[in-house]
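Input record (one chain):
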Amino acid sequence: MQNLIEFFENETNKKINIFKYSNQKLKLNQKLVSFNNEIYIIETHEKFSISNPSGYFYIISQQNLDFENLKRVLDNLYDDIEIFEYEKFVLLNSSSELDINLSTPEIIESETYTNTLIAYIGKINTIETFNTRISIFKDVIPFLNNSSSSTKFINLNDLTIHKAITLINSEKSFYSLIDFQSIKTMDKNLLHTGISFIENDLNISKTSSYLFLHRNTLIYRLEKIKEILGLDIKTFKDAFIFYISIKSYFISKL
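The corresponding structure, as predicted from the sequence alone:
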């Protein structure tokens, strides 16, 4: 079978996948063929050229990556996509923006049984932009995996924030402004609550629903943060300081 795939790829100059047909709906780039009394799907893709990227790109990072299994899940979720292994990640490429959101990693995890992080790195048409955004993602992923945030889907704005924080932390004098000792004494659930409150737009109701917390419990925790750190994160300025401080604390632990 591998020899047949290589033959078709050489003849068509396209990436070829061949797999057994199991009554699934065919996509535009798929055709049925009969071989040795079995029915197969031949799927064709334009060969991915790292020197000439084009379209909308997503990076998928999994704790225990099984490429073929992940590809199967993604093919079932989306039409007309290109899926590639790239270093230790998986790249998802499409000619249009996909309906990928905060719930998508959980759907994938339910099928692949491994932790999943997805980053949308935008519409890319040059190798320079591609390399820069991949590099930024590599810079921030250790921090994302180690932070108090439970977010498993990030977009360009999130990458911008995380990159800014890593740049701030490269200035060592910044650490003298953070009360790490007080942060160390705080319960991790308290830190997670504060970060979640900020990531849910400083909205009590939205955060309560997100964390499955009673409104009064959330307010109590916010007051506890204020008591320990002297920051009222219901205000933008204090929320900004808290966010950078907690994220910096987790970076310092890497």
